[in-house]
Amino acid sequence: MLRLLSFALFLAIWWIAALVVGGAKLPSPPAVLQVMIAEASSGALFLHLGATLARVALAFTLAMSLGSAIGYLMGRVKLADRLGDPWLILLLNLPALVVIVLAYIWAGLTEAAAIAAIAINKLPTAIVTLREGTRALDRSLDEMASVFAMPRWRAFRHVVLPQLAPYIAASARSGLSLVWKIVLVAELLGRPNGVGFEIGVAFQLFDTPRLLAYSLTFAAVVLVIETLLVQPFEARANRWRPRAA
Amino acid sequence: MRLEVDITGKTFRSAAGGTHEVLAPVKFALRSGEVGVLIGPSGCGKSTMLRIILGLDHDFAGRIARPPEARIGMVFQEPRLLPWRSVEQNVRLAAPDVADAKLAELFRILELEAHRDHYPGELSLGLARRVALARAFAVEPDILVLDEPLASLDDALAGRLRDEIATLVASRPVMTLLVTHNLDDAVRLGDRLFFLSPRPAQIVAEVPIGIPRDTRGEAEIAAIKAGLAQRTQGDRTERDAS
Question: What Gene3D superfamilies does the record point to (chain A) (predicted)?
Fold first, then answer.
């Protein structure tokens, strides 16, 4: 209920602002909705949205799984941490734009280059978060598992993984928002479809309604995925905790 | 089956760079069905000794001979339960082969039936301790290690749990190693008592208790305790005299 009210407030402010500034700079909600409907009925909206979502899914999965594995290794093995740390600092501070441009130059304007570039941007933050999570693992529970001779996989699943779950959730949450942002840049620079590509076209034509139609649909999809996927996972991972105040 | 402990020394390097001797030579053995009790002042290195015996610490001089297939059941000083798993899951994860009937009986003896589906965060310390006991017994251990399992519990509860431990130990042949600084617990549960010196720990006295555990009445227990008190008194006067 409160969420709906907040959404209504957003629409109201937008509408008033549109009236004040004028339709050329900020089209009113109905004008944007009209474009959305037109794009949706032609199928273009779904095509571009689908292309972007597929890239997000691939790059996100790639970065999360690789990043979690490397982060866990660096948290557990001192040598891996020492060797990996300089690379990690380099990757963390490398601007997204540099990675994307270099990927396109080296691998051509291909799908693989785009997905790799997006994944590389997300990778270091996943590593850092999971490394912290691994360092914070409770040694006394490891000892317990070892004394009771728990097989490795069972100990990992029931002793280690639940301790890492909040870190994985945090990393997924921040990583998803990072990937959402970067995927559009990658599409703008070197892909013939996707929301980023459409926004690029709209920018060249100064077509604000189209720009808003695409970005707002995209934002809505992000919101839905957050509420339906990320938040339930977090809630599930934390259900054993006594209720937070 | 026998557990032989022959530690010739253990040093510990502190962060400041100094080395500290934690354990002096310690040697003892336990047979199946026997309850050995380690009694010593806090900080004397009992926990270090346990970690070595359990195979958690390999950085020591000496030898531990454990039957290679021996199953270990352990009750740590803190319960060390998995907070994200229910009471029943905690027990079953350590003892996946435990039969339902056996588990039900353990939960009945330890009065945990009502708490099967609770998470450890919802339990009092006393209950969590009992879950840790249930877990240790559910694995049907060949070696049972109890590290101050009754510390910081009120007397009534500690007494009940002690009786339960005695019942469970008697129900199957197991080598039990109990660490405590409560003489009463030691005399009621132990077959052999090992008195440890302050750090670096070594065994200053080994006292076998001849009377079988189930025939030890209050009078016998009082007599044993009096004997022990006299003995330590004697040690002290001897030391003071020299």
Answer: MetI-like
